[in-house]
């Protein structure tokens, strides 16, 4: 095959995927940027250039700040907990505990279920007076509480659901990493007199660091991407107490039909995801370090 | 018989303690699902009353099935999932082959551009993609739900990694026999990557079976709604508080995936692992 | 210094016995080699000594103490793994010091021991590197360093040289042997390579199918193999063990080392089948009836294929084995026609 035809073949093979990628990833990303500088067309009035007005409005929008704050708390609430649980689960499932087949199934099942379906189940779980949670707290003699309907607990309820849904998924990555670690490392450590905890701290955990970083980046992305359960469980309420950024974008765009403002908000989301990407690239070097 | 001992496995009391902990966590983890099963398979008056001898029933499923066009939703979801998977397999295979084995102008830059999608997913570009679908007059079609996902950066990446591990000699040997590039792809690379295709297929199907926000935005009729959106429309409108029926519908929509998962657990877990290692 | 004793040790997985009633003693300060074909239970035996596997039956004693129930860390042993088992995220220095840190040895003493160990093994310039930045031979040295820095009286090695190229393997053999002598360690060394065993060992424990075939010095193993298996396993090329009833009578196998066969004008009639020239010597395969016998002759042998020759050997160099169970039979009790 000569060089020119290699170029042409390569391009031809790539073309179909490239067209779709450009049309539904790159073009919309740039279109978002462009539209964030225009006004929302209303009736006969077409969109006009408004410069940074949308961004200005965003800075003055208390809901935006609240939603951003919520998203931060949501990330802080879900990420460390689900990663720690995932690691614990993986260590357990990788070991020789009794019934590990069942354990693995139990931990992983939430991953294969639709978020929308599990949100329904959890909604019932949290329901005032009838819900299982209320029944448990009732038996314990605690006062009744509207878990999803109160500003102080709505976001926490969503955090719990997310941890439950994601921990088993992240467990898989740890499990794969654990299985690739040679058992003779554990044996060498045991001969040197290292206990289980010492081995975990000084050998296993550092060796799992690349996996942890990978899972971390995924968890960060998910914390900005997953809003299905909000739609089902709280609709962002009460008073935006449980709204996250993407959910707010969805509301602005498809409930208030303010597409220009939604574009500006999307740019913020893209910037956050870009930061996550940079994080991953910065650590990508580290990933290959041990190999 | 005493079996091999891994010195880093717990022993004695530690082992008992850890086993208990692991089981407690597992029970906690399936509790919501067990709760859903209880409610769905018992008459409504038992939905929050736990009595061992409560009568079992399938009435909730029958009611749910009758209350909304779930048959149509099932068909829509299956068409959607099949459409996306078929398109992904073809597009990603071709693109991955190009990236793995062709040295064409701009390859590395293009590859970076593909990887952008791992961060900037269609899931977050809802505003502009909706605008595009409206402009193409595709809103409220199954095609519109699937289009943004058909060129999967994840699939391209995964297959490229796999194709790169195929020994050059095999490729050369096939070419010496007179096979064309596409024949080599089809006869050598695709068969060797089979486990990866299975893994990618499982991950893709479960992802798109479960996808919700984008389908919610781009559909607005029974004709195109997938199960997830159908379930949401169903449970948020008329049913109000009848939890027995809602949980029955919920289990119904997750049923096929759940059954497939329980039957092919090992393959599922291994596929997710394979797809995750990259 | 600690002698190692195994009493009737058995290790079974299900019904398969990887190690089956093994008893031997490795002398304190000696170099014992576990030799045998792949899958014969060498590694399992070593891991039973280390405590990485639990015995199904029998006892293990180290330095007179019964360690059968003790965990690896309390047996006073060090071990070098076939894969080296270096911690990939730790530097050379940290790898070597791993055990001392676990055991809480003070930092100043650690530093001194690290320096002397690194000097001994020629690792001083590499201490900051990661294992992935080292060659195979260097990794091997780091594994050795980790084993000797703890000054454990016993060192166990499982095919430590099998991942090195031939030249390096040869050098490392001497080095390990010298190190073991210098430090006075009791060594148990696993290999499937009989040259390695013969050149390094004070004592060779030859295993087959989970049992001991022979436990002897290399010289004894060479001169008086206890079984036909032992006879065939040792030597390059190995001993001819053949059935020639015309010479030995019924029910016996004749064992002759190739280097002990002479080609000349008297002795047993044979024809030359092949000649293989190896440089310093040649291997001539000769056919006696239907039976092939290898003879090793110095220099370049110039026989044509099919040439008629006569084979001769000394009575002292004749080995006899019972055809039924492979056990050695002393020539004294056998017919007198053995020299040819
Ligand atoms: N963990 C194990 N489980 C079951 N069988 C094993 C295990 N380890 C080793 N074996 C079996 O025991 C026999 C001896 O193995 P090993 O001691 O590793 O042999 P060697 O080191 O001499 O090659 C082999 O047949 C092997 O298959
Ligand atoms: Mg072995």
Jot down its keywords:
heterotrimer, A: 291 residues, mainly alpha, MetI-like fold, 0% strand, B: 278 residues, 2 domains, 14 helices, binds adenosine-5'-diphosphate, binds magnesium ion
Word description of this protein:
The complex is a heterotrimer of chains A (291), B (278) and C (340). By secondary structure, chain A is mainly α. Chain A has helices spanning 3-35, 53-59, 62-94, 100-112, 115-126, 132-139, 154-179, 183-191, 196-207, 209-225, 228-233, 245-254, 259-289. Helices cover 75% and strands 0% of the residues of chain A. The model of chain A has no long low-confidence stretch (mean pLDDT 87). The longest helix of chain A is centred in the first third of the chain and has 33 residues, at 3-35. With 278 residues, chain B is mainly alpha-helical. Chain B folds into two domains: 13-57, no CATH class; 62-274, MetI-like fold (Orthogonal Bundle), CATH 1.10.3720.10. Helices cover 72% and strands 0% of the residues of chain B. Chain B is built from 14 helices and no strands. Chain B has helices spanning 12-41, 59-67, 70-101, 107-119, 126-135, 142-146, 153-164, 168-176, 181-192, 194-210, 213-218, 227-236, 243-263, 265-277. The mean pLDDT of chain B is 85. Chain C is an alpha+beta fold and 340 residues long. The model of chain C has no long low-confidence stretch (mean pLDDT 90). Chain C folds into two domains: 4-228, 3-Layer(aba) Sandwich (Rossmann fold), CATH 3.40.50; 235-339, OB fold (Dihydrolipoamide Acetyltransferase, E2P). Adenosine-5'-diphosphate (ADP) is lined by residues 13, 18, 36, 38-44 of chain C.
Count of DSSP helices of chain C? 9
| Number of individual domains of chain C | 2
Strand coverage percent of chain B: under 5%
- Provide the CATH superfamily of the largest domain in chain B: MetI-like
Second CATH tier, the architecture of the largest domain in chain C: 3-Layer(aba) Sandwich
Any idea of the CATH class of the largest domain in chain B?
Mainly Alpha
What is the straight-line distance between the termini of chain C? 49 Å
CATH class of the largest domain in chain C: Alpha Beta
**CATH-defined fold name of the largest domain in chain C:** Rossmann fold
Number of domains of chain B: 2
CATH homology group of the largest domain in chain C = P-loop containing nucleotide triphosphate hydrolases
Structural class of chain C: alpha+beta
Arithmetic mean pLDDT of chain C: 90
Helix/strand class of chain B: mainly alpha
Number of helices of chain B: 14
State the low-pLDDT regions of chain B, or none: none
How much of the residues of chain C is beta strand, in percent?
25-35%
Radius of gyration of chain B: 24 Å
Radius of gyration of chain C: 24 Å
Largest sheet of chain B: none
The strand count of chain C comes to 19
